[in-house]
Amino acid sequence: MLVDLFSFSEKNKIGSFDLPDNIFALESRQDIIKLVIDHQRIQKISGTRSVKNLSEVSGTGKKPFAQKGTGNARRGTNRAPHMRGGAVAHDISKNNKSHKINKKVKFLGLSHSLSLKVSQKKLFVVDNLALDIHKTTNLLGILSKYRAGTNESILIIDSVKTDMNLFHAARNLHNVTTVCRFGANVYDIIKHSSIIICKDAVKMIAETSKRGEK
Questions:
Q1: I want to staple 186 with a disulfide (CB 3.0 to 4.6 A). Which of 95, 109, 150, 177 is the partner?
Q2: φ, ψ of residue 36 in degrees (nearest 5)
């Protein structure tokens, strides 16, 4: 698929770039995209939520009083779930939040999300993302050429390492996210309105597809 190749700073068309059809020209599968996003969000859960069971509640294990003859209801321990300050009946500390999916499915979700942005004409391929200055105002002037409104969010995907001037210029902008190729993920792609990706990052994604890895 041939698309326009832009100069990042000026958004001038400087040529054409061939996007791999097996990554950027797929018919969007919403079910696969949702599966990968759910996986990402579940993995962010810390899994540290815990309650105390009978063995963890402080207190003696001695029987409080005799079984019969006191006039009280039978009681074997003060740490029972029905007692004040006692344990929790159904322990959730072993709640497992792991959610595994195959690497091929992860990459397929990435491909379908990128294809969706291409079909919406919200993906722009640029030659490189290097900036001469790390001023935020300068970056805002550049990004205004790529989005319809000031509140429209943009995800910028660089190659191996994010340009430091770009990183420093964008870190104070709440609706602009910069990542390297290895930080590109389905959730961020769908969350942001537009995607700006350098051609080297596209080539790296294509190579990953050939290897069958994430």
A1: 109
A2: -70, -40
Q: Report the C-alpha gap between 214 and 212 in whole angstroms.
A: 7
Structure tokens at 15: 């040529």
DSSP codes of every residue in 127-177: S----S---HHHHHHHHTTT-SSTT--EEEE-SSS--HHHHHHHTT-TTEE
Please report, for residues 45, 79, 177, 188, the alpha-carbon distance to residue 32 in angstroms, rounded to integers and kept in the order given.
Answer: 21, 47, 23, 15
139-157 tens-digit pLDDT: 999 999 898 777 889 999 9
Domains (ranges, CATH) in the chain?
Answer: 2-45+97-211 (3.40.1370.10), 48-96 (no CATH)
- Which residue, among 25, 30, 93, has the nearest Cα to 57 in the 3D structure? 93
pLDDT tens-place string over residues 109-133? 999 999 999 999 999 999 999 898 9
